[in-house]
Write a structure and sequence with these properties.
The chain is an alpha/beta fold and about 350 residues long. The protein contains 14 helices and 9 strands.
Amino acid sequence: MDVSAIQAGVVDHARSTLDHNELALAEFLQKFQERYFGMPRDIDLSLVAKSLLSTVATQRSGKVHIPGKRRIICISGESNAGKSRALIEHIVRAKELQPYAGENGKDINPLLLFEAPSPSYPRLIALEGLKALGITTSAGEGEAWHAFRCALKANRISVLCIEEAQHMIETANVLDKVKIANALKQLVQMPDWPLRLVLVGVNTLDTFVKSQKQLEERTYRISFHPMSVAEGIAAIEDKLPKIIVEQAGLEMAPELTTNEFVRRLLHASSLQFGSVVQMTRDATEVSLREGNSTVTKEDFATAYRLAKGCVAEDNVFIADDWDQIDVGSSSRPSIDDNQRSAPAGRREKSVKYGDRP
């Protein structure tokens, strides 16, 4: 079965159902959503990515592995911090990892990217990697890892990226964690193959790497921390005009420059840069689809409602007491929850604007 041909047919059919204006808007929005905004942390990520990729060019087959050489990047941070988008910008799109013609004329893709299965244990990780290479097997744990290493070489993979890598250790016991650490270490110190590893996940992944000395000494660790309030304000003041005015060609309603709106947006995003950018793009898309020339606070409220599935009283951009809303669930604690968790007469507050989540 030619999956690419089937996909092309589905896409062609979808395009045929759109009129000229709808298709033009869809193509514009695709490019609009794909644009990248960097942060100061991108300087570090770019530096370690170049360092990691350049070591592939200097590894010689059969040479003794130097224990302290860093051949792994760990990118950690909470959801909506912008990890996956940064991974695409600095690693997936790197010129060193673009497909090229092999000796027999067949295209070689030096990058393998897959998501760690959940729940997970050592054997499943190897099987998921083999599956990503188009190989199905029922091999046991040791055989699966051996087959995976062989398949990486056979397919000329030089960089392996594992997203949601915290799944590897979420349910792992102490012994399984040691097995996983050993297996990952063995991947990057094969004397006959220059494989480099990128792990992406939430903060528990970074904790795991730090706890395994054999991984920590081989790893560059890049943490995507929440912004400070000052960083958040500066980001909003800089990025909103670029997204709405420069990129989308719309106007900003005056209300979007007020201190109250900035505070609402920071709270809605939990001080995560990626969430600020995505929420602004979603609100801009709402305005574009409605044929408006100006992005307003109501557009942000609509985008937030569609993303969270919340009612008006739990919408950060509408509610009067917006700073009491738990943006993780976009709902307020139930009466029963309040009674269990807080003294009588007091309402337990959720994370507020200005607080670190």
